[in-house]
Amino acid sequence: MDSATAAFEAKHRGHDLYFLHTSYGQQTESKELDCAHQLAERMDVADFLHIETDHLARIGASSLTDDSIEVNEVDLDSDEIPSSYVPFRNANLLSMAVSYAEANDCEAVYIGAHSEDYSGYPDCRPEFFDAFQQVIDVGTKPETSIELVAPFVDWSKTEIAERGLELDVPYEVTWSCYRDEAPACGTCDACAYRLKAFQEAGVEDPIEYKERPSYSD
Fold this sequence. Notes:
8% strand; two-stranded parallel ribbon; mainly alpha; two-stranded parallel sheet; 217 residues
């Protein structure tokens, strides 16, 4: 949901799109890849690169990649780092993205992280993206200029949903659930934040759920 909205935001700002999708052993990787392909077809992207890597799954320590670790039920009030945190994942994914961007003379890398992410995931904090921008600046060719853009880093999930609705994001071909490839469980953290966003935006989430609890205030 967040990445799709970020892609539409990048297109709205005048960028040609190069899609990078990574399968790293997450439980819903097939569904996510299918959604990424459908989105790419609808957006007429300049290129689509899919990378399969198993090192994050082999490292483990996350319920997204290790079947022996249970995906937590939602707790919207928790300040704990959830079991779904993949150690230093965004640094790994952004490194791939920057390599891809530099090879294709791209001027920006977009990521859909937002404020409710960095309450639980340390690699979604604004400070992390500021630091990674320095890594990009120091670690690429002198003539390379790539901006790391997190357009929603200070936004809530509801604000992202509302922006996506303005941009006509086809949310029916996006996926958020941590547990299931179809239907979505409705009770993991990712499903809960997504459902809450749509409920507060006053629009029904178009994907199928096993359960649709009410999470809005």
